[in-house]
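Design request, tokens follow.
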């Protein structure tokens, strides 16, 4: 690599690092205890290894500057003190430093909350699908449970136990502001505990390459004050709203007659119980569609329904463009009314 290329690469690296600082999807913008512990630990390790690097470079420079000339002018490397220098500098000191880092990771409980053992009863089960997130709220009796997708609401200031599974390949659950990455592995359930210390929208991402649309497998955690969370919960428990206009009413018939119910559930709509795609019962309450890849508005809904394969090529929803203009508008009016 040419020196100029090296400098350019460093520049790009630094720029993306700085850009990362302004990005809320960053492990340095913590919003909960688990993420904070991880951020503190990484800051400590960064400083520690920075000091080690400076000392090492100092020794190299000192050696280079003070020992000039040919080897014949100097004592051989195994002269007195040489072995000891290698032993301490190369083995003992690095050993101590790595041991300290190891103990700190354990002691600060950074590793344990990452892969907790099975809690008594997880609040939420998140199932990774290619390329979206199924979200089941499990707490309480059957009539207090519901399923939604892609947007996870949690109350501020309360620990939430999340169970993680996968329906197909290995995914990874990562909301940097709240927690480290935890794998979602087919046939295995992993657990983590998140707690948000402030209200806000925290973006996340599938962090394990899982196929063509891995980059569009985004996640949103909405941390709300307990009262707002409770209100959201109560709404989610309701079946879908009855369409408010004749146009939306017509849209519902179109939805039921098209292929949609084969893959999507809309609670309260009888025949719509498909499980291959996200639950749409309260679709309009979500901020984004396509696993948080596109805004949830009428234009994007129309584009998504007719051209999912252009917006998210390879995704498991086909293009459904067999509608006339008025039919499509009615269908979108129906979807947009699913508050
Ligand atoms: Cu994934």
């Amino acid at each position: 690599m040419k020196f100029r290329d090296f400098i350019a690469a460093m520049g790009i690296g630094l720029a993306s690092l700085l850009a990362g600082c302004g990005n809320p999807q960053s492990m340095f913008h913590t919003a909960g205890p688990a993420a904070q512990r991880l951020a503190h630990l990484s800051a400590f390790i960064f400083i520690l290894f920075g000091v080690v690097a400076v000392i090492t470079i100092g020794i190299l420079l000192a050696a280079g500057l003070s020992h000039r000339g040919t080897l014949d002018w100097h004592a051989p490397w195994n002269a007195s003190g040489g072995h000891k220098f290698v032993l301490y500098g190369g083995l003992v000191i690095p050993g101590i430093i790595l041991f300290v880092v190891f103990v700190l990771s354990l002691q600060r409980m950074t590793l344990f909350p990452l892969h907790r053992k099975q809690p008594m009863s997880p609040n939420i089960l998140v199932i990774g699908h290619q390329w979206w997130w199924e979200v089941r709220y499990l707490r309480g009796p059957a009539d207090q449970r519901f399923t939604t997708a892609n947007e996870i609401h949690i109350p501020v200031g309360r620990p939430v136990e999340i169970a993680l599974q996968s329906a197909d390949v290995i995914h990874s659950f990562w909301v940097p502001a709240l927690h480290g990455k935890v794998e979602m592995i087919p046939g295995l359930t992993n657990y983590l505990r998140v707690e948000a210390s402030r209200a806000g929208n925290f973006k996340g991402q599938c962090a394990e390459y899982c196929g063509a649309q891995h980059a569009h497998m985004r996640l949103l955690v909405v941390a709300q004050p307990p009262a707002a969370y409770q209100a959201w919960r109560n709404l989610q428990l309701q079946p879908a709203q009855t369409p408010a206009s004749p146009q939306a009413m017509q849209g519902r018939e179109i939805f039921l007659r098209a292929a949609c119910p084969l893959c999507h559930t809309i609670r309260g709509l009888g025949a719509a119980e498909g499980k291959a795609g996200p639950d749409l019962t309260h679709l309009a309450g979500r901020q984004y569609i396509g696993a948080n890849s596109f805004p949830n508005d009428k234009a994007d809904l129309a584009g998504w329904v007719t051209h999912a394969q252009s917006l998210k090529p390879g995704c498991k929803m086909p293009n459904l463009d067999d509608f006339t203009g008025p039919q499509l508008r009615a269908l979108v009016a129906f979807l947009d009314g699913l508050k």
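Comment from the thread starter after seeing the answer: thanks! The chain has a mean pLDDT of 88.
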